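Thread title: Can someone regenerate the structure for this chain?

I was given the following input by a collaborator and told the matching structure tokens would be attached. They weren't. Posting the sequence so someone can regenerate them.
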Amino acid sequence: MSFLKGFKYAFCGIIHCIKNERNMRVHTVAALYVLLFARFFDFGRTEYVLLLLTIGGVLAAEAINTAVETLCDKVCREKDAKIKAAKDAAAGAVLILASFAAVIGVVMFSQPEGWVRAYEYYISHIPGLCIMGAVTVLSLVYIIFPFGKKKERGKNK
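Best answer:
Regenerated them for you:
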């Protein structure tokens, strides 16, 4: 039973990150679009594995960053140089991974034929285009407006 509780706690942690961290919402939307558009490209298993590992790495790094920030805020409420350094390093780790993920995305999605296929699909399938428009609007709402109680920010920034 404690094994299943571990999954419950992990999912609670993911939900906490999504509710409280705009960057996590940005990363999840980016992952959605990467996966939506990947089908128009000639990716094999290896490319899909690379995409999934990259997405998973960025999301995991953002979750770890949230954990570090939350713990730092709990341990020390006043300004402290070492707490700031820890929080900055955790944020920097996310930036490094997200930057390399963006480079991987640019390299993998640089095939013009894939973009032509995506364009032709959405121009010829109006319902698909409408769904994509709705997904875009919902994605913006999801990113901009948190749908849970916002956590209190620490002073160590």
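DSSP finds six helices and no strands in the chain.
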